[in-house]
UniProtKB/TrEMBL annotation:
Any GO BP annotation: phosphorelay signal transduction system
Species this chain originates from: Pikeienuella piscinae
Example of a GO cellular component annotation carried by this entry: plasma membrane
Membrane topology: Multi-pass membrane protein
Keywords: ATP-binding, Cell membrane, Membrane, Nucleotide-binding, Phosphoprotein, Transmembrane, Transmembrane helix, Two-component regulatory system
PROSITE patterns reported for this sequence: HPT, RESPONSE_REGULATORY
Protein name as it appears in the record: Response regulator
Domain Response regulatory: 16-133
Localization per record: Cell membrane
Coiled coil: none
Length: 265
């Protein structure tokens, strides 16, 4: 029995969905499908409007097109994951016509829960894809694999990275990631102690990327805030946040070290 027959599409009835998509034809197709399945759809015609909608209300599912004007889909997802409130834990599904592995890695790296490739041609498959990602996240959480907000690693993102890289190359990648994290820790500690905002900006910029790659969502959000404070030349606030972020960074380093050792035994 395939996924389309196993999943009850009636579960989409009454579900609130934000569709961030700039192409009018794609808006019409996706909205028609979703409303036929019983979902309630709000449309945002670009990334800036999507962020406005998200400040106004909450949604069960966020469908975010990656290529949008004003604010790109990747930047919208980054903003969602950087939010200090419940929004950071929203289910985010990227919509993209570019589904090659390098694009998938970039999309999961910024914090998307998954992606649906365009064009969307099957209403049943569209509903199945949304519910599968929703169920996959719930299963990870109930099994303890995906953490609650504030925990160390989003396992779905980390496991997607591991699957993409492969067992042979993953140990070497973990060595490099651990080295980058250790360097960032040294630099951030030094920058905080010496009020070196240029060093803080460089180190936090690197940390945003590395943390996002491995699924360290909370550390990524802290790093993004730290980077903004450094760019704004707010030395006191940056030093305080850096001190708060170091324990989380240590936890991520410990996780990566443990994974590296497990793969090199």
């Amino acid at each position: 029995m395939d996924a389309a027959t196993e999943i009850d599409l009636d579960r989409l009835k009454g579900m609130s969905i934000l569709l961030a998509e700039d192409n009018v034809t794609n808006q019409l197709v996706a909205t028609q499908m979703l409303e036929t399945l019983g979902a309630e759809v709000d449309i945002a015609a670009d990334g800036a409007i999507a962020l406005e909608r998200l400040r106004e209300r909450t949604y069960d599912v966020l469908l975010i097109d990656i290529e949008m004007p004003r604010v790109s889909g990747l930047d919208v997802i980054r903003a969602i994951r950087a939010d200090e409130g419940p929004l950071s834990d929203a289910l985010v599904i990227a919509l993209t016509a570019y589904a090659m592995q390098e694009h998938r890695e970039k999309i999961t790296g910024v914090g998307a829960d998954g992606l649906i490739a365009k064009p969307i041609t099957s209403i049943k498959q569209f509903g199945v894809d949304i519910l599968s990602l929703l169920d996959g996240r719930a299963e990870k959480t109930s099994a303890g694999a995906a953490p609650a907000p504030g925990a160390v690693i989003e396992r779905m993102i980390y496991e997607s990275l591991a699957a993409s890289i492969g067992d042979d190359a993953m140990p070497e990648l973990l060595v490099r990631i651990e080295s980058d994290l250790q360097t960032a820790r040294t630099d951030i500690s030094e920058a905080g102690a010496n009020a070196d905002l240029d060093l803080m900006a460089r180190a936090s910029h690197i940390l945003i990327s590395v943390a996002g790659t491995v699924g360290a969502a909370r550390l990524q959000r802290q790093s993004e805030r730290l980077n903004r404070l450094a760019e704004e030349q707010d030395a006191d606030a940056a030093a305080t946040l850096a001190e708060d972020a170091l324990p989380e960074l240590d936890n991520v380093i410990a996780f990566i070290a443990s994974e590296r050792k497990a793969r090199t035994v």
